[in-house]
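Let us practice reading a record.
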Amino acid sequence: MTLSPPPMDPHLVALIKMAVREDMGPAYGAPHGSTGHDLTVEASIPAAQRSAATIVAREAGVVAGAFLLPHILGEYGVGIECVIVTPDGSRVAPQQVVARLEGPSRALLSAERLCLNFLGHLSGIATLTRRYVDAVAHVATPPAICDTRKTTPGFRLLDKYAVRCGGGTNHRLGLYDGVMLKDNHLAALRGQLGGHLTLAALTAHLRRQLPPEVPLWLEVDTLEQLREALPGGGGGGGADIILLDNFAVDSLRQAVAIRNAQAGGPAPGPHPLLEASGGITLDTIAAVAATGVERISCGALTHSARSLDLSMEFA
């Protein structure tokens, strides 16, 4: 699998530098160019010593974040060579080598935990995402498995990249690149919806104001709201995706049938798309996928993934 990682923009550079500073102390990045202090290696490892090491998976999973390794290692000085053996998006088996490193022993030892923290966190997300994707692979037309904004603060781009490494699909990145009307937005607009402005009319009004490339989601909680939001429900309807929040499986199946009947059926392409969301687990996702929804969003992909167990082993 070939994936395009996020660009190393100032945000990601600053994130790595902040993480290094947590370990190496306030002297890291000082005007005189200090790389900070690792008191253990300074007390025990000769400055001129060099070592070879490998980063190895201790369990099966999917790799994500390997592209960061050269950038992280570069913060610990010059002269570290890094060869990625198992690239991002690849499945990895226990004891499989992810990367080979060679350089000053002190730098490799100081960088060990930070490399594993980034790589383990992101690979854990990719691994869990792949489990969700694999769980719906048997469906004739598998739904897209989507992430949410429930990401680690500061890690949004990386967490969502890890989802892609696992075969998932990114939702909007933030509040700036998509419109999503949720229950609280509708509650705030209740005065405007008072008996004359349906959900279909509201979304049609918003759709006319938005650039065509900006997606418009509408969250509904009931089948009645779904009917009101569909193109036949009044005002034409403007939602690109209707998010079915906390619907039971039977209700999801009904929602797909209602959409197909009211919005012209699933061919040549259903509109609006239907997205199931809310409390979906690995135990329930196959049944949800079988209802015919086109998308399933799972906050668990990013907020509940366990880090993949990796280690750095010195030769």
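A brief commentary: The mean pLDDT is 92.
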